[in-house]
Amino acid sequence: MKPRKVVVALDSSTKEATYTIDWIIENFLNPERDDVHLVSALSLSSDFEATELEMNVDYAAEYIMNWEKEIEKKTQDSLDEYLQKLKAANIAAKVEIIKSKTDTRNIILDYTQKEKADILIMGSRDLSTWKRLFVGSFSDYCQQNAHCPVLIVKGLQRTL
Amino acid sequence: MSTEESNQKTTEQKYLATTDISENDHETIVTTHDTLNPITRVVLIALDHSDYSKNAFEWAVKNFLRKESDLVVLVNVRPLVYTGGPLGPSALSVGYMEISNVYHIDEQYRTNSYQLLHEYGTKLKAQDFAVKAISMRGDPRDEITSKAKEVDADTLILGSRGLGIFKRAFLGSTSDYCVHNCDCTVIIVKGSDPHGQH
């Protein structure tokens, strides 16, 4: 059987992420073929400058550093939870947290291309039409620009 | 002329599960195959005559479909035939010849659709999948989405033409529309693999 490299892009620790992992274990993943990369992209320090915090500059830098560490830890923990699920299903998997100062959308696609993934899997946030117009949809962007098949897990609404 | 017509009738009948259809049917079941397996998943694959569909189909067979549990619903949406130009039928073009032309083209689309579905359906039948192949007519985006809802599809699989930003905005992308408007998981299979695998 041909081996497959599966990249799963997740927003850590949301209901969608859990549903996505459960769904792909039941419907898609094959323990004999698949090597799963659980990826979460952290786009850091792009939102504000230290001066906006109105703190002493040195303290602000430290504060931001701690804050980033905290986010990274939280992400790591929730991804570990999914890692355990995959291990329990006998599927080879590893966690990859990518930190970047640039746009999150490209991070995942660049990773997927670099790893020569056979498929990119993600959930889809249930944005309303208006929100989607302004915020833009991450899954749309990936689906349009990826070079491999894209699987978008939906259906959480039906199970609720 | 009449030999052609009767040939065409035989061709159509060859592909149909039933010969009892009216000419302007919105949808027709072209082929079905049942198995004894209990169906726990419904997978809808939307097809057209392009290579993108061929890719999507082959990907599905190699990577997703499970014959023990799946009902594979194949759908091809053929376009409506439009008369007249962008402004609609002109007063000059309405007449007997025009109408019979439309009918002829519609028949052609229909036969092509049946042939396509028969081809793909046969491939699945040969591997003992439970199959249902349906030919539909209209706007692919609406038809695929509503059919997915109707058969309660768990997953929808589509090819993608990979339209650029502008074409996507003007022509509208079927795959985009389906991702937004279907409740189920959607798999978009892009063109041939650039890494040279598969």
How would you explain this protein's 3D organization?
The complex is a heterodimer of chains A (160) and B (198). Chain A is of the alpha/beta class. Chain A has helices at residues 15-27, 57-88, 104-114, 129-135, 138-145, 156-159; strands spanning 4-9, 34-43, 92-100, 119-123, 150-153. Chain A contains six helices and five strands; from the N terminus they run E-H-E-H-E-H-E-H-H-E-H. The longest helix of chain A is centred in the middle third of the chain and has 32 residues, at 57-88. Chain A starts with a strand and ends with a helix. By secondary structure, chain B is α/β, with parallel strands linked by helices. Chain B has helices spanning 2-15, 51-63, 96-126, 140-150, 165-171, 174-181, and strands at residues 27-33, 41-47, 70-78, 130-137, 155-159, 185-189. In chain B, helix 1 runs parallel beside helix 3 (96-126) and helix 4 (140-150) runs parallel beside helix 6. The interface between A and B is medium-sized, with 26 and 28 residues. Strand 5 (150-153) of chain A pairs antiparallel with strand 6 of chain B.
